[in-house]
From TrEMBL:
Cofactor(s) the protein needs: Mn(2+)
Any GO MF annotation of the entry: carbamoyl-phosphate synthase (glutamine-hydrolyzing) activity
Family according to the record: Belongs to the CarB family.
Annotated organism of origin: Pseudobacteroides cellulosolvens ATCC 35603 = DSM 2933
Protein name according to UniProt: Carbamoyl phosphate synthase arginine-specific large chain
Presence of the UniProt keyword Ribosomal protein in the record: no
Length: 848
């Protein structure tokens, strides 16, 4: 049916701030939805509270409200704008919960405003655990043995009549918030109490655990005419018991027989029809690995985190299609944006394998509990594409930007005995896959590991293959690393740095082998249809085969390096910058190319850059693409610390770094060089120095006096930054921090109590633009990303403001900054202003 003519204006509800379990994937889906609606001539009103997102840019919607996503504020916006409909299913759990609150408030009925897409009744059927269970029973789809409770008394009654472990799932929460797996009555009482409190309707689902079964996901779309398609099916590497956001996920599924695939496909279509969902939804199953028995775990009646992964894995724009379905279009009326020859009712077909690996924050919170369960802990994720599971897995691990030379993680567990390894891998853990590789290296069989972990033998055999090739390289050494072995290593996904580490030689020696043999990657296209139709959107991944799909033009090109996975201190703000960089390049007539590996972001959408390479952000991968495309230069300043850290290695290989030069970036990042610059400019800095050892650190701290502020150089987001008050604390800090930055010194400064001030600006080499001065509410020493800031400043004297402006202009010119920069200051009680640091790239506060 054609687009509904009575829908002229639509309110799109965003997802608010990034939290664990609800990250950039909803910025991506919301931005795509706004674009999709405007393509159809719909006036779009957007409400969101996150300043770091593309969604809250003025060009995304006709009217943008940066306001709290609460019933009170939404009602005011609705009364003012009078939209014809509200689209809430693209704003994560926040948007969905607001749809329920608005409907129950009565304002939608009062003003005649329609909830577009999936109805309130369907949302409740999927989100209310009791209604969901009843619906599944009606269509003969099994759910785990369970009970829905709203008080602790009923919960304890269920526990008394059932065996542990028991899974607790609160209603209307995201990322497993408030839930968990209870192994005993004490854990059960604690988790239940928390879940009841956090549920919007004080309701939790208690389930007998099916931990150990395979966890399978289906991403499904349905339109108003009851047409349904499966966009993608995905299989978790970890069995049931680990939240899917914390699990390695592979698409398409690897271990299902055709009978099992079709069985769950049919069930998915039956479920989305029974729930009457219009748009996208995610369905999670638990499948008994020894029979055809399965149960439905849950359904997300909205675009989810998995939807972003499925979209990027297949090239099928789920959010775009869901938005058009919401205004009346059907799948056979919506063009496939990738092929522009087929329609959205054409199910994607993959001739490659995608692997998603989570990115956890344990490098920031080293004492945190690293075990994994039903409550999500990851802050972000990476995605990699390859022709085999091994290749895509190793590329994904390369993409994590964990700054530890893992050697497949084997060095982490070097000192563990087989017995200790087997005990370690019994419970899910963020480093379990590396411990499994170490166990395989120590000749533990796949069967023994599978019996303990319940991980499918298919995946374990693949890990065994990786470990065996690693052992072959180690045994061969550089002297016997021949063409056959090197080629096998590259095809399985080993980066040159992996191979160099295994062979105990420099990376340059391994890179030379590529020219000696020679061997180089080719690039394949993501086209949604396994090559059956020609694709028009250039979206590529590398592999080691014969045929190359890239058409290289003679246009002037610029390569933008993205920021990789979202983590604490490096979030969506850098994706925002990357997207705007691409837009500006297009406006200036350059062919824009981006490299990134984050499936949650707008920058990896199929239609942002002229070319997208979904690849690890390593020197090797970037140089391969530069060799292929031959751009006039590379922009690193919008990709956060990940991209900045590539600047010097690329520059050393003769790559033109656009914007602030590598030499000047180094002056800003290198403590000694930065001190000399400040001295020449007569700009004060807190007294301090640099140290490579504990002994040096103690001498410096004694000379300047405690408390001192310590941090590694060349890091972003205050990683490993602490205020240290005595020698004992300094000993503890140095034992951890030196490992984090072995190539760079530890910075030790006198901690100055005072008011922290921040400036973001832009410099073209001659003129400096300072939009304003931000004043931190918290005392100095609280990281700017954790501090409440006001803009413009409220209590700074004119003298302090003038000093800040003077220092900013002189510093940015002296550093020859070309582009954005950030400077942080502290003013002591006497009004003296010190420079804390200069970041020659955007940081979190840039968007304010």
């Amino acid at each position: 049916m054609p687009k509904r003519e009575n829908i002229k204006k639509v309110l799109v509800i965003g997802s608010g701030p990034i939290i664990i379990g609800q990250a950039a994937e909803f910025d991506y889906s919301g931005a795509q939805a706004c674009k999709s609606l405007r393509e159809e001539g719909i006036e779009v009103v957007l409400v969101n509270s996150n300043p770091a997102t593309i969604m809250t840019d003025r060009e995304i919607a006709d009217h943008v409200y940066i306001e709290p996503i609460t019933l009170e504020f939404l009602k005011k916006i609705i009364i003012k704008e009078k939209p014809d409909g509200i689209l809430a299913s693209l704003g994560g759990q926040t948007g969905l919960n607001m749809a329920v609150e608005l409907s129950e408030d009565g304002i939608l009925a009062e003003l005649g405003i329609e909830l577009l897409g999936t109805s309130l009744e369907s949302i409740k059927l999927a989100e209310d655990r009791d209604l969901f269970k009843q619906t599944m029973n009606t269509i003969n789809e099994k759910v785990p043995k369970s009970a829905i409770v709203t008080n602790m008394s009923d919960a304890l009654e269920f526990a008394a009549n059932n065996k542990f472990p028991i899974i607790i799932r609160p209603a209307y929460t995201l990322g497993g918030t408030g839930g968990g797996i209870a192994q005993n009555i004490d854990e059960f009482e604690y988790i239940c109490g928390k879940g009841l409190k956090l549920s919007m309707i004080n309701q939790v689902l208690l389930e007998q655990s099916v931990a150990g079964w395979k966890e399978i996901e289906y991403e499904v779309i349905r339109d108003g005419a009851d047409n349904c398609i499966i966009v993608c099916n995905m299989e978790n590497f970890d069995p049931v018991g680990v939240h899917t956001g914390d699990s390695i996920v592979v698409a398409p599924s690897q271990t299902l027989s055709d009978i099992e695939y079709q069985m769950l496909r049919s069930a998915s279509i039956k479920i989305i029809r029974a729930l009457d969902i219009k748009g996208g939804c995610n369905i999670q199953f638990a499948l008994n690995p020894y029979s055809f028995e399965y149960v439905v775990i849950e359904v997300n009646p909205r675009v989810s985190r998995s939807s972003a992964l499925a979209s990027k894995a297949t090239g099928y724009p789920i959010a775009r299609v869901a938005a058009k379905i919401a205004i009346g279009l059907n799948l056979d009326e919506i063009k496939n944006s990738v092929t522009q020859n087929t329609y959205a009712c054409f199910e994607p077909s993959l001739d490659y394998i995608v692997t998603k690996v989570p990115r956890w924050p344990f490098d920031k919170f080293i004492t945190a509990d690293r075990s994994l369960g039903t409550q999500m802990k990851a802050t972000g994720e990476v995605m990699a594409i390859g022709r085999t599971f091994e290749e895509s897995l190793l590329k994904a691990i390369d993409s994590l930007d964990i700054k530890i030379n893992y050697q497949l993680g084997l060095s982490l567990f070097e000192s563990m005995t087989v017995e200790e390894l087997m005990e370690f891998i019994q419970q899910p853990h963020d480093e379990r896959i590396f411990a499994i590789c170490k166990a395989l290296q120590k000749n533990v069989t796949c069967e023994e590991i599978s019996n303990i972990t319940k991980i499918d033998m298919f995946f374990l055999k693949k890990l065994e293959k990786i470990v065996n090739i690693a052992e072959d390289i180690k045994n061969a050494g550089i002297a016997f690393l021949d063409y056959d072995l090197y080629t096998r290593a590259k095809k399985i996904g080993f980066g040159d740095s992996y191979i160099a580490n295994l062979a105990c030689v420099s990376v340059d020696k391994i890179s030379n082998l590529r020219h000696k043999y020679p061997i180089s990657p080719v690039y394949k296209i993501v086209d949604t249809c396994a090559g059956e139709f020609e694709a028009v959107t250039p979206y590529y991944y590398s592999t080691y085969e014969e045929k190359d799909d890239v058409a290289v033009s003679d246009n002037k090109k610029v390569l933008v390096i993205g920021s990789g996975p979202i983590r604490i201190g490096q979030g969506i703000e850098f994706d925002y910058c990357s997207v705007h960089s691409i837009k500006a390049l297009k406006e200036m007539g350059y062919e824009s190319i981006i490299i990134n590996n984050n499936p949650e972001t707008v920058s990896t959408d199929f239609d942002i850059a002229d070319k997208l390479y979904f690849e690890p952000l390593t020197k090797e991968c970037v140089l391969d693409i530069i060799e292929k495309e031959k751009p006039v230069g590379v922009i690193v300043q919008f990709g956060g610390q990940t991209a900045i850290n590539l600047a010097a290695p690329l520059n050393n290989d003769g790559v033109q770094i656009l914007g602030t030069s590598v030499t000047d970036i180094d002056v800003a990042e290198d403590r000694d060089k930065f001190l000399k610059l400040l001295e020449s400019l007569d700009i004060p800095i807190p007294p301090g120095s640099t140290a490579f050892s504990v002994e040096q650190a103690k001498v410096i701290a004694e000379n300047i006096g405690y408390p001192v502020l310590v941090r590694p150089s060349y890091v972003l987001g205050g990683r490993a930054m602490e205020i240290v008050y005595n020698d004992q604390m300094l000993d503890e800090y140095m034992s951890r921090a030196v490992d984090l930055s072995s190539k760079h010194p530890i910075l030790i400064d006198k901690y100055i109590e005072g008011k922290e001030i921040e400036v973001d600006g832009i410099c073209d080499g001659t003129d400096v633009l300072i939009p304003g001065i931000m004043e931190h509410i918290e005392r100095a020493g609280v990281h700017s990303g954790d501090s409440i800031s006001v803009y413009p400043s409220r209590s700074l004297s004119q003298e302090i403001k003038d000093t800040v402006v003077d220092y900013t202009i002189r510093l940015s010119k002296a550093l020859n900054i070309l582009g954005l920069f950030n400077i942080q200051f502290v003013a002591d009680s006497d009004g003296k202003v010190y420079v804390i640091e200069v970041n020659p790239e955007p940081v979190e506060q840039y968007h304010i």
